[in-house]
Amino acid sequence: xxxxxxxxxxxxxxxxxxxxxxTFFPSAPQERTGSNPPYLAPQLIRKFIKAxxxxxxxxxxxxxxYPTLLNAAYDWKGGxxxxxxxxxSHVGHKVMAQxxxxxxxxxxxxxACLFGRMDIVKPVLDFSPDTLYAKGPHGFxxxxxxxxxxxxxxxxxEYLLRLGAKEMKVLLY
Length: 173
Hints:
The chain has 173 residues and is mainly alpha-helical. It is built from ten helices and two strands. The protein has helices at 2-19, 21-24, 42-52, 56-65, 84-90, 94-102, 109-114, 118-127, 142-148, 154-162; strands spanning 73-75, 81-83. The N and C termini lie far apart (58 Å).
């Protein structure tokens, strides 16, 4: 009796797999329908993130054409995710970072360090002290971001150093 059920269910599963393989093994992202925007191609996300390090005109043009790029993240490998705001923040491009935030980008403590926002950094570290050792894109630390913030972030930089923050060596791809 069990063998017959196994054969019957196996045959049914094989038929379903042959008719609708993407249901069981999705390959490439499918374009969404209805009111949902289409998936963003990884190459497009990569282009946008690379531009966010230095190229305001490209960022504006891509964002105008693809508004959902704003909070898209690219995986440079091994879970090293980076958003446009993360890119602008770790290179110290405050104008770019501010533009992205003005468009609604999701900021975090790394960007707060860049801008010297002690009113944000201190409460976060009081709430979660181990965040001091958090690593952003490419392994850049809070201290790195505060250093990139220059004079505006000097108070945050000194605060992080008092807490024991250390600069980490990072590997870029």
